[in-house]
Amino acid sequence: MEYRQLGRSGVKIAPLCLGTDNFANPTPEDESRAIINRAIDAGINLIDTSNSYAQGESERIIGRALKENGRRQQVLIATKVHYPTGPGPNDRGNGRLHIIQACEDSLRRLQTDHIDLFQLHRPDFEVPIEETLAALTDLVRAGKVRYIGSSTAPAWKVMEAIMVSELRGYVRFVSEQPPYNLLDRRIENELVPMAQAHGLGLLPWSPLAMGILAGRYADAANYPEASRAQLRGGIYAERVTARGIEVGNEFVKLAQEVGISAAQLAVLWVKDQPGVTAPLIGPRTLEQLAHYLPVLEMTLGDDVRAACDALVPPGSAAANFHNSAPWMKMKLPE
Q: Which residues 6+ apart lie within 8 Å of 279 measured at CB?
């Protein structure tokens, strides 16, 4: 397996990363631990989580698992800060007070002395980027954080952070974690070329489009049992559109012609897109993880890439996976 450089850092990661949003919600701890161990066995060396996943329980599970298996040094732990962790006005956002406290809390839950990649879960338009970067720089200099990044931010906001880091001598982002799949390709318009030009790693989330690209949804009104749209509703349900389901059904047929599953093809498509370092896979079960792992060694052919472009043209979208980002004003028809 060929490892990939993470942005302009000296770090190399596998072409797939393990996402843990399902840990404790709904995946039980014993299976979550088994997923971690199997992923590491397969060569995956970045585990992504957040202090907001299951109210911090995802971090706790990762901490207990790595302490038990003794494999902390084999993996990079990536976690995030931004969303509320308490009722107070400073228990949220990207200000210094919250960032420093959230880092200490995550270190304790993860049972580690450092976070390898500390990411801003969302941009904060109320806090000057200078304050945010200064706080993150202090954490790096204190040895509590190794690298920093962002998630689901507009290209201009990431570029602003890069330029302020260059001007002020602050630690520089090495990565951005955007929503990206065949149903929502809008990052190709600005974020991807910006990342390529300035050496920023891209770690996309939701490559399967919540299973829509695996043909899991029959229509936009009736959600399958135990699907995210059915379990969580809200923004997850909003992402299920009639057009997206139509593309998903055609995508399943394409995967059958290629000779792999639609889930594998969806992950492979993101993995081999220009500018992408490694997509996040978020298995709910150990069986799902085992199904994704062969993609580590697969390559997307030009003919298949062209067929995917015919389904959803570059830079366009058939479903809105930026709907957790208030800055995205463009709305899509349901």
A: 16, 17, 180, 203, 204, 205, 207, 267, 270, 271
- Quickly count: other Cβ atoms within 10 Å of residue 209's Cβ: 27
Fold of the domain spanning 4-177? TIM Barrel (3.20.20)
Question: Per-residue pLDDT tens for 31-68?
Answer: 999 999 999 999 999 999 999 999 999 999 999 999 99
Whether residue 83 lies in the annotated active site = no
Domain boundary assignment for the chain: 4-177
Confidence (pTM) = 0.95
Q: Are 227 and 211 in contact (CB under 8 A)?
A: yes
* Buried-state track 247-278, b at ≥16 Cβ within 10 A, e below 16: bbebbbeebeebebbbbbbbbbbbbbbebbbb
Structure tokens at 294: 């062969």
- Catalytic entry in 53, 147, 180, 223: 53
> Do residues 96 and 134 touch, judged by C-beta distance below 8 A?
yes
